[in-house]
Write a structure and sequence with these properties.
single chain; 40% helix; Spore Coat Polysaccharide Biosynthesis Protein SpsA, Chain A; 21% strand; alpha/beta; 9 strands; 2 domains
Length: 259
Amino acid sequence: MPLISIITVNYNDLNGLERTLKSVQEQTVNDFEHIIIDGNSDDGSKEFIVKTQENYSYWVSESDKGIYDAMNKGVVAASGDYILFLNSGDDLSHSNALQDMSKHLGFTDFVYANIKVIDGEHEYIRKTPKVLTFRYLYDNVPPHQATFIRRELFEQIGFYDRSLEIVADWKFFIIAICKYNATYNYIDIVFTNFYLGGISSMPENMEQIHVERNQVLEKEFPFFLDDINYRFKLERIINNLRKSKKIKLAQHLGFLNKF
């Protein structure tokens, strides 16, 4: 079984950190290393890490330049064949989660699964397509807390772009798949629980996400943008036509096939 490096980034989220670390320590397999990158928290997180440090192969608590700087630190410290970012607050779905996924490692650059999204008392399963397309990756990405990344990809592509505040993991993924032809495999199981409230899930950050993604696309995929924007325009036209009462009547009377 390939060695897994689980990287947990934390900043002032002691309760989330405890939940995350507990789920890792309850796993039925132990062929992994656990790396903790704490951003010099002052809420008791550092003290908790020190108290339980025998469970980690490496940990550090120091100031950083944002979440992607912290994640890059974790990659540098990692020695595993695959990297899993299970950041503070997220937890593995059950004690056999790593065992279920580990059997699929070693064949592709990415291996990803589903997550359960939890928003207070409401929850649902978020699935990712088995086949990834540029259209899908334009505004989506397999969830990092359910995605194993072959560590060699960081040596080939480079680390997360620290100039981006929210979408650096999305940039890494879309470049790996669409420019470097990285291989991937989808496993249709629920691997982790994701609790809404992170920076990328806050509605007020949607505009910044859009801006950062466009910056990446304009730099990395300029020839695709005209085509994809034209497709979006056609999709809007088709959706508006579907809502038209005249079109619905024509379809009902058999004068027009459904589309």
